[in-house]
Amino acid sequence: MKSYSIQPLNENVRRELQQKIDYKTKPIGALGKLEELALQVGLIQGTETPELRHPHVLVFAADHGIANSGVSAYPQEVTWQMVQNFLNGGAAINVFCNQHQIQLYVIDAGVNYTFNNYHSRFINAKIGYGTQNFLEQPAMTLAQVYQCLQKGNEVIELISKQGCNIVGFGEMGIGNTSSASLITSLICERPIAECTGKGTGIDEAGLIRKIAILEKALNQLGKLSNSLDILATFGGFEIAQMAGAMLAAAEKKMILLIDGFISTAAFLIAHSINPLVKEYAVFCHQSEEMGHQIQLDYLQVEPLLHLHLRLGEGTGTALAYPLVQSAVGFFTEMASFESAGVSK
Ligand SMILES: Cc1cc2ncn([C@H]3O[C@H](COP(=O)(O)O)[C@@H](O)[C@H]3O)c2cc1C
Ligand SMILES: O=C(O)c1cccnc1
């Protein structure tokens, strides 16, 4: 596997950055989490004059064999139909990206459909026509995991060439909350029932069925010792590509905007490969999907927004982006006590 050489944050500038924040015309600490965010961005970029350039959201899409076992409220074909919707500009993520001038790319990581689509925002990174059903066999091979990590890397190379230094990670894939639950249960070492929620909106009986299915999968294939095996056995092509892209983006010192439950499951894999990726990550919102809290507790992070979202697509990242802009804005533009002639 490619080794990821993620740099630790530039601690040499921490004192100056903190001082700059403290000298702004406000009581010490009064901008709360925005101050932490400004400090993080300053440390990532190693400068007192950070800038956000060419923001992107990447929506990785793929299908899941498990979708045919009754774990989702929607049929598998919704995945490809939503990909078309993204390309036609009709999804929630399109609206929020347009609102904030964020560039969107839709990546076919492994949708069960052939797109003959030459849309400029579409990237063909297809590994297969959906994963295997993990009730029968591992979702993918280790070779496919490595291919996925490489594809994630290539997407980051592409947006890096376009000058991007802040990227949101989103996904689309019917059945992928099941993968995310299994990954969370194994990495965070918590019972699968605590990591499993209603996804697209199954009812109580459906939830009980979903938990039983995931328990069965764990009993059959769940004796796994490392995160790449977890990814191969229970993951999805979109989750694996996201994990690779997250690591590659951190290597390039981009700011990583992490969305909800599925995006954070991919982050758990990336984090277990190289924990330094966390230094570059902003956790954008708290998802309604119950396992998300377990993931956030495990990573010891606090999300920015609590909007009761349970959508995915990267929507939380696009909604949080203006907060990162505000953090950078106050940090670079606000007057200091000295420059404004305000008494301390
Ligand atoms: C119309 C529609 C749009 C979506 N956009 C994101 N998801 C979200 O729901 C799916 C995961 O939930 P589950 O595991 O229950 O299938 C993913 O595709 C996720 O991105 C959607 C789901 C639907 C139905
Ligand atoms: O939090 C998420 O990412 C999520 C939750 C439910 C369904 N799809 C995505």
UniProtKB/TrEMBL annotation:
Q: What family does the entry list?
A: Belongs to the CobT family.
Record's keyword terms, sorted: Cobalamin biosynthesis, Glycosyltransferase, Transferase
What domain of life does the native source organism fall in?
Bacteria
What role does this protein play? Catalyzes the synthesis of alpha-ribazole-5'-phosphate from nicotinate mononucleotide (NAMN) and 5,6-dimethylbenzimidazole (DMB).
Q: Mind telling me which SUPFAM superfamilies this protein's record contains?
A: Nicotinate mononucleotide:5,6-dimethylbenzimidazole phosphoribosyltransferase (CobT)
Pathway per the UniProt entry: Nucleoside biosynthesis; alpha-ribazole biosynthesis; alpha-ribazole from 5,6-dimethylbenzimidazole: step 1/2
The record, for Pfam families, names: DBI_PRT (PF02277)
BP terms from Gene Ontology? cobalamin biosynthetic process
CDD domains linked: DMB-PRT_CobT (cd02439)
**Phylogenetic lineage:** Bacteria, Pseudomonadati, Bacteroidota, Cytophagia, Cytophagales
Q: Which organism is it from?
A: Rhodocytophaga rosea
Q: What is this protein called?
A: Nicotinate-nucleotide--dimethylbenzimidazole phosphoribosyltransferase
